[in-house]
Design a protein that fits this description.
about 0% strand, about 60 residues, about 95% helix, 2 helices
Length: about 60
């Protein structure tokens, strides 16, 4: 279960990074902003899962 959530976080980060890059390439500020938001969601999800790991293994 935790592994799936970590994978989802990585996927969100990668998707956001790609979207941000594409937005910059075509000059679309909205797409760039959406990409940054997706990356932030992925970062937050990853931090949450790392926090859970600390309590499980700590």
């Amino acid at each position: 279960m935790a592994r799936e959530k970590k994978a989802k976080a990585k996927m969100e980060q990668a998707k956001g990074k790609a979207k941000e890059a594409m937005g910059r390439a075509v000059g679309n500020e909205r797409m760039t902003a959406e990409g940054k938001v997706e990356q932030a969601k992925g970062d937050a999800r990853q931090a949450k899962e790392k926090g859970k790991d600390v309590f499980r293994h700590g």
